[in-house]
Amino acid sequence: MKKIFIILSVLAIIIVLTLSVKPILSLCSEIGQNFIITQLDKEEKERQQKLENGEIVRGKDTILIWENMYKIGHYSDSNHLEIYTNGSFDSILEKVTKYKIVKKNLYVTSEEGFAVIDKNNFCRVFVTITEEDFVNGYSIDEQGNKIYYSRYIENEHIRYLSNFEAFSEEEQKIFNKILDKINSD
After folding, report:
1. Radius of gyration of the chain from Cα atoms?
2. Residues 87, 78: Cα–Cα separation, whole Å
3. CB-hemisphere CA count at 13 Å for 145?
4. pLDDT tens digits along 52-69
5. Which strand (E) or helix (H) includes residue 176?
6. 155-175: pLDDT as tens digits
7. Phi/psi of residue 56, nearest 5 degrees
8. How far apart are CA 108 and CA 115, in angstroms?
């Protein structure tokens, strides 16, 4: 038995040395590369098809897509709740701290406020920061006054609330549970 093993081992070594390892490794490497390239091309084709159909395509910075209209995206400064309209995203709330889906509604808490999106894709937002802070920068007029560029979005699917009590009692309870969870973490 030992002799057979030794003979087979020596025979295997001779075959490997005769055939050379380099062509075998090159073939394996080429097959692997072709497989990976084919898979990446297939994924990119599917991604482009979704974009052509007007869908939101999940990327590495996408946390959540809601009904192909809203998304929570991850950016260098924070997470943002955004709405997709006319081929681009508009930020509804920045600095999103938590989100939760309850009874087919999406609840979002942020350092800037609260938002709830219902099953009909209607978003109600309560902004908790001042109007001067809820801007995309400002310009200065001839008298030296700052003119702020508001981040309030005019969209038929978004309604801004004047106070937290404008949410239903059930929605307020859900937001308070989310806040309690944030504070306990």
Report:
1. 28
2. 22
3. 2
4. 666 666 666 777 777 888
5. helix 169-184
6. 999 999 999 999 999 999 999
7. -80, 130
8. 5
